[in-house]
Specification:
The chain has 20 helices and twelve strands. By secondary structure, the chain is of the alpha/beta class. It has an eight-stranded mixed beta sheet, sandwiched between helices. A four-stranded antiparallel beta sheet has the order 2-3-1-4. β2 (about 105-110) and β3 (about 115-120) form a beta hairpin. α4 (about 90-100) packs across α5 (about 125-175). The longest helix has about 50 residues, at about 125-175.
């Protein structure tokens, strides 16, 4: 967007319009992302996961003689502690000793339970189960060994204490002392002996506070890749990526897409016509005048609407010489000129198409006429005007002045005084003159010719003409004080036209259908007949 250009406020409909315009980009992005995701999924080696479950709650035999059976004050912390123990170095070393290696495992808590899940992954399902069970068993053995060692250490301390008490009892029996003191020592010793017996039993029954409740088994299906899930994820990512690309391309795209953008870029120059794409015209590989070949099509109706707009331009001041130009090449100005000429002729006006494109003349190709003689022949004085005019077959009120042989100096030839005399001569014998000129930006020919015109139409093509090019072209015409009266937008979607072309409106009678109006050639009351037009051309020959 150019500096200083006002940024229009965008609404929901504008964003939806962007998505509609760029639906191809979005679809392509989705297809590519999903395809890449699926290919990567099918190329990936399958990975299997096995799970072993370990119960942390002690069994009844662990606390038969244990008076302290209360649960830990912070159960969640205790579980997290055991998770760390299960992945600690001693357990890891035990697994290495058993399997030769210790692949990484994941330990998670089953919510609201005292069960830990030991999950191991491998490309071999049996290997995954072996690793998970190895970790679970190594952890259980570690807990059991640790518990037994604790009991043995406690028993050793009790044995030492019992021995100390025995010495005190023996000393008390050898000396005169109160029998109550000796009895207290004996009772204390007996209690310690009872606890020692309990520890010995606990040591024999100790499981370490962990138990394997569900051994891991070899899984039958891999956990990854998951093509279906990956495809869904790829679809979502592709949509996001595609929408992002759509808006990026929209931001980078400076081309004019609709009439609103055309009006903004043309700085207040009114749009007088919007022409939909004419189906089949490009496929044939040759110029086509749809006003002749498809008179009931939406494109032909749009040219008739353009004709009405041109006729309204003459209400305030006469418009006899009308120039059509465009910012750049291949933007449909010649196609517009040919079809507009047919539409005006069929409305009863005598029309002369003048090809002033002395670099790439094409008007004659639309009607299958010769370009051997024409404008340059008249301007150079080689032929009189009457000898160069050609009648368009089937269109009695339409004549063509082709470009003629191409000169080496088109701009100088179009700026000569002789061109003004030629325009005056043509005005005397035709109701309206349509001048086809080269594009404005590549060459100066159109700007040189523009001041001699009564009106100028700027032709643009949706998706081709850029806002920057159109602004520059309008600026060039204003610099030469040219009478730019309107713009025409080519190539819009058919539903954006004028609403006709779906078979709702048809012409009746064979001659009407072929010419698109009330008479043989669309003549109206009071309009010049074909015979009168031929008389005008005959007068030029005198």
């Amino acid at each position: 967007m150019a500096v200083g250009e006002e940024t229009p406020e965008l609404g929901l409909s504008d964003y939806l319009a962007v998505l509609r315009r760029r639906k191809g980009v979005i679809a392509l992005a989705v297809i590519v992302v999903v395809a890449v995701t699926l290919i990567a999924s099918y190329l990936q080696t399958p990975v299997y996961q096995a799970t072993a479950e370990v119960l942390l709650r002690s069994s009844a035999s662990d606390s038969v003689f244990n008076a302290n059976t209360a649960q830990p004050s912070d159960a969640a912390r205790a579980v997290q502690t055991q998770i760390q123990v299960l992945t600690s170095q001693p357990v890891h070393d035990a697994v290495v000793k058993k399997l030769g290696s210790a692949p990484r495992v994941t330990v998670v808590e089953v919510a609201q339970t005292d069960i830990l899940q030991v999950k191991a992954q491998s490309t071999d399902p049996q290997r995954a189960a072996t690793v998970a069970n190895a970790y679970a068993n190594a952890y259980i053995d570690f807990r059991r060994t640790q518990a037994v060692d604790d009991l043995v250490a406690a028993g050793t301390q009790l044995q030492s204490r019992i021995a100390d008490l025995q010495k005190q009892i023996d000393s008390a029996g050898a000396q005169p002392s109160p029998a109550a003191q000796r009895d207290a020592l004996v009772s204390q010793q007996a209690l310690l002996k009872q606890k020692l017996d309990q520890l010995q039993v606990d040591s024999a029954l100790q499981s370490g506070g962990a138990q394997l409740v569900t051994p891991a088994t070899a899984p039958t299906s891999p956990i990854k890749p998951t093509p279906r899930r990956n495809a869904v994820i790829g679809l979502a990512v592709g949509l996001i990526f595609g929408v992002g690309l759509a808006f990026l391309f929209e931001y980078l795209d400076d081309s004019i897409r609709d009439r609103a953008e055309l009006d903004r870029a043309a700085s207040g120059v009114p749009n007088v016509g919007a022409i939909p794409l004419a189906a089949g015209s490009k496929a044939k590989g040759k110029p086509e005048v749809v006003s002749i070949t498809k008179p009931t099509s939406a494109a032909a109706e749009s040219y008739r609407s353009l004709r009405t707009s041109v006729q309204f331009l003459g209400l305030d001041h006469p418009v006899t010489a009308l120039q059509l130009t465009s910012p750049g090449p291949e933007e449909g100005k010649t196609t517009t000129l040919a079809n507009l000429g047919v539409a005006l002729a069929r409305a009863g006006q005598s029309v002369c198409l003048v090809c002033c494109d002395l670099r790439r003349p094409r008007v004659h190709e639309f009607f299958g006429l010769s370009n051997e003689l024409g404008l340059t022949s008249v301007l150079l004085g080689e032929r009189p005007l009457a000898a160069t005019l050609q009648e368009v077959g089937g269109e009695d009120r339409l004549a063509l002045l082709a470009s003629g042989p191409l000169p080496p100096n088109p701009s100088e030839l179009l700026s000569s005084p002789r061109i003004g005399e030629l325009i005056t001569d043509l005005k005397d014998h035709f109701d309206i003159l349509l001048f086809d000129s080269p594009p404005l930006l590549p060459v100066t020919d159109a700007a040189v010719l523009a001041p001699r015109m009564d009106a100028i139409l700027m032709v643009a093509t949706a998706g081709v003409t850029t806002r920057r090019e159109l602004r520059r072209a309008v600026e060039l015409l204003r610099q030469v004080d040219a009478p730019l009266v309107g713009t025409v937008l080519n190539g819009i979607a058919e539903e954006g036209g004028y609403g006709y072309g779906r078979g709702d409106y048809r012409y009746y009678g064979s001659s009407q259908a072929s010419n698109g109006s009330g008479g043989k050639n669309g003549s109206s009351a009071g309009a010049p007949t074909g015979r009168e037009t031929r008389r005008a051309r005959h007068a030029l020959r005198k």
